[in-house]
């Protein structure tokens, strides 16, 4: 697309505060694709085959959807929506040709694709942990990472909490290395659980 080029597009949103219109040429370039995407409902479960894997996620060729004119698939799973667990590459979670079922999150009108979530259909380990754990409870965990302001301790599968520097010992310390090392097994007390932000605050000195 070039400056001065004439186009035909569909208005997808109006921003009166900014005095702007959001347009999409997908409606005119591929009306079949546009109608399919507009017919999807938030939370709908879609099935398909992983068509390509990129560093930023994976494309999915949807069973009931038309082919995409540009991308390998109409559906796309962004990197964070692939899995609840930690992983380095998208290929650690899915592979080309794999059958998947995902939750529909959003109609991306700019790229003309369905944004999907694979992890939404699996149990959230943090939510499960929060349901089974109470503030004030003592847990055992492994020191996973040291940072200037404290230490991150893994207390359950895929659940990591922060022990702030001030909560590492009964007496003040200047760095976490003064009292703990990587892979140390430590006892900690749960100070706070923020389910919405998926944050766990721990204390070693209280244990």
| Category from helices, strands and their pairing | mainly beta
Total count of strands = 12
What is the string of SSEs from the N terminus onward? EEHHEEEEEHEEEEE
- The portion of residues assigned to helices is under 10%
CATH fold annotation of the largest domain: OB fold (Dihydrolipoamide Acetyltransferase, E2P)
Our count of domains comes out at: 2
Radius of gyration: 23 Å
Average predicted local confidence, pLDDT: 89
CATH architecture of the largest domain: Beta Barrel
- Strand proportion, as a percent range, falls in 35-45%
Instruction: Identify the strand order in the major beta sheet.
Output: 3-4-5-7-6
Helical element count?
Answer: 3
The profile of the biggest β sheet is:
5 strands, mixed, barrel
Runs with pLDDT <50, length 5+? none
Which of globular, elongated, flat, extended, rod-shaped describes the shape?
Answer: elongated
Helix/strand layout:
Layout: E1 10-15, E2 20-24, H1 26-29, H2 31-38, E3 45-54, E4 57-62, E5 75-78, E6 99-108, E7 113-117, H3 125-132, E8 138-147, E9 150-156, E10 159-164, E11 185-194, E12 199-203
Parallel strand pairs: 5-7, 10-12
Antiparallel strand pairs: 1-2, 3-4, 3-6, 4-5, 6-7, 8-9, 8-11, 9-10, 11-12
